[in-house]
């Protein structure tokens, strides 16, 4: 394959919007790397939506192929880590931001960025998990390190109907936690309870001006929203509890108080999935293989054709996407 189909974001001219569309690229357009992959599947993350819509300065090199997640088969390799025919996956590492990403039929990436596709997952399942699910697993592991175990008390998941939230709800419920799911879409209550949520609460209850300390409600939380939502969540955490923060859709600011940290000993864990070392990634994917219910994963997943990925990226920014989308590229 010397030419291939890709989504390409081009730098806007002064005063113009970012242009994005499907184009035909050549092998010579690929960037540096020691492994060339025929991309079979990708997914749509909030960051992909930001890149395609230009709602935030995610893309730092133009032209850019977006898509921060990819799964596919090795076609060429100059690395001893992978051989032709191996199936691999990639999450993060600046792909889709500074290095050409996965919304293309072909990609060239660095072998240090790649993981072998876990034997327990198909490419569809791996991308149904994607960065969102892998991030959710890192957040669960952070709460576990804080000794927040099943039975310790209710654990809140914000943005629960989204990608990170859906996988977090399924993981926590499968591990025996009492999961409280927060969503701004009341119609998704049934979906969240099917994933294992014991309670579903309205997003509005976490959206007002945060108090320094509110009533203690949760022993822990996974926050995929940020901003005032995170500040409210912190004010409601029980003494000695913890929050794993992994989202910024609600804003970069934290308009809260130090009171939860000083007066209740609450811990705040920041979850970085983009540059986590390979050992952490492998541990997370091993846990996903062991702990994630495949039936629940399937219920949170919807496949879309490659031609629909641009519209899907716009939909995710507008809050129209539930769960996880798998993009069928090859």
Question: Could you list some keywords that capture this structure?
Answer:
2 domains; Quinone Oxidoreductase, Chain A, domain 1; Rossmann fold; alpha/beta; 330 residues
Distance between the termini: 12 Å
Which percent range describes the beta-strand content? 25-35%
Poorly predicted regions: none
Task: Give the SSE string.
Answer: EEEHEEEEHEHEHEEHEHEHHEHE
Number of structural units classed as domains: 2
SSE inventory with pairings:
Elements: E1 3-10, E2 19-26, E3 35-43, H1 46-53, E4 69-77, E5 87-91, E6 106-109, E7 115-116, H2 123-145, E8 155-157, H3 163-174, E9 179-183, H4 189-195, E10 199-202, E11 218-223, H5 227-235, E12 237-245, H6 259-263, E13 267-270, H7 278-291, H8 294-299, E14 301-305, H9 309-317, E15 324-328
Parallel strand pairs: 8-9, 8-11, 9-10, 11-12, 12-13, 14-15
Antiparallel strand pairs: 1-2, 3-4, 3-6, 3-15, 4-5, 5-7
Descriptive account of the structure:
By secondary structure, the chain is α/β, with parallel strands linked by helices. It has two domains: 144 residues, Medium-chain alcohol dehydrogenases, catalytic domain (Quinone Oxidoreductase, Chain A, domain 1), CATH 3.90.180.10; 140 residues, 3-Layer(aba) Sandwich (Rossmann fold), CATH 3.40.50. Strands 3, 4, 5, 6, 7, 14 and 15 form a seven-stranded mixed sheet that branches. A six-stranded parallel sheet has the order 10-9-8-11-12-13, with helices on both faces. The chain has a two-stranded antiparallel sheet with strand order 1-2. Helix 1 packs across helix 9, helix 2 packs across helix 3 and helix 2 packs across helix 7. The longest helix is centred in the middle third of the chain and has 23 residues. The relative contact order is 0.16. The mean pLDDT is 95.
